[in-house]
Amino acid sequence: MIEELQTWKWVGTDAGEAAIRTMPLSPTTAQIVAMRRTMSAEQVRATSDTARARVKGAKKLDARFAARMISDIAGIEMASSAISSVYKAKRFAAVLGEGSRVADLCCGIGGDSWGLGQAGLKPVGVDSSAVRAWMYGHNTGHEVICGDAIDECPTDIAGFHLDPARRTDLGTRTLEVEDFEPGPKAWERLIEKHPTGAIKLNPGVNAYDLPAGEVEILSEVGGLTQAMLWVGKLAGECERRATKLGIDGSVCSIAGDAWRPDESNEIGAFLGTLDPCLERADLVGEFLELTHTKLVHPGTGMVTADEPVEHPMVRWHTVHDVLKWNRKKVKAALRGLDGGIVEVRTRGGVINPDVEQKALRCKGSNNRMTVLVYRIDKKLTAVLAERVQRKTLHETNPVQGEEGG
């Protein structure tokens, strides 16, 4: 560990920075041999990791933060995006007040502390890994403690942000709360000492297994990103919240109590596919009441209406045909609609969308067609539809629970 730490500290020197800036993203054997004349194998590896991490981080983190950070690929993958970091930090600042001291436990490379600092808070990082603790200090400039996240948590904090490890020894993401490190028993000890804080978890975690508080599911472009358990003063009045974060800084949230509607309805003139954060948070019922739409079938994430209701949490399609899934029959129906290039959407792996998209391509001029293939009441159903453009939507209900971000 000491040798590894010394290697990373070298990467943070002027010589290391110069090596990063000239490091090829995919160095050849000849280039590696040439670099070995002035660097050790460990230095070459760490420099290469940082160069690739900066490229990947520029797409996820703040650009200026990513441009000067020291990290490996794993550090980038575990870090919160700049969008979610800023969003969460705003809640901390609004509740605790600007200038409050917040412990960033299992702080990693400092992605969440970057957001806390931007919000005017004073984060202090804690990580059991000496390498991660050093990276955090280098990247953020904030105080950092190398030690156990729970035992070494500072006592003079207004709140905490805990990011326990979310991968098993097999390298797969875990859905069981007992497999997090530190785990639920440690969370209880932490909350007993410091009642106000947040625990960052995998979005697939079973919310019913978590301690008391508000569970919030976050989604960004590309899907679900994390679940947050807010406790103490940071918890809202409702037990669940579903939040969609836009790349433009927009925020749309729906909060309420968890319940799962079990109704089924025939697909009407318009079909809407919901943002996955609503289902994961068990707030589909809240959305139905808010928008006066109808659920197609439990577990499908689809709603239907006579007129599409404008809301950031739903993507609407005009329905042309609904039929039992059969490739030949679906393709024949597409020809009758002058279909050309089609988009295929599904869930649960019931079909391979890439394969079917090629197979269903027709010679027509309409390239706006979408084929949605879902399992509805144990039967594979295909919906032939066209995406509704937002400017044509009818705002029949005010959008509630939407915040500027």
Sheet/helix structural class: alpha/beta
The top-level CATH class of the largest domain is Alpha Beta
Q: What is the mean predicted local confidence, pLDDT?
A: 93
Say what the CATH topology of the largest domain is: Rossmann fold
In the CATH classification, which architecture of the largest domain applies?
A: 3-Layer(aba) Sandwich
Classify the beta-strand content into a percent band.
15-25%
Distance between the termini: 41 Å
Fraction of residues in helix = 25-40%
Report the principal-axis shape.
Answer: globular
- Counting H and I runs of at least 4 residues, what is the number of helices? 14
Polypeptide structure, described:
This protein is α/β, with parallel strands linked by helices. It has helices spanning 2-11, 14-22, 29-35, 41-57, 63-68, 73-78, 82-96, 111-118, 130-140, 184-193, 276-280, 284-291, 327-336, 353-359, and strands at 101-105, 122-127, 144-146, 159-162, 197-201, 214-220, 223-231, 240-245, 251-256, 270-274, 294-295, 302-305, 314-324, 343-346, 369-376, 379-387, 402-403. The radius of gyration is 24 Å and the shape is globular. 44% of the residues are buried. Mean pLDDT is 93; it is low at 394-405.
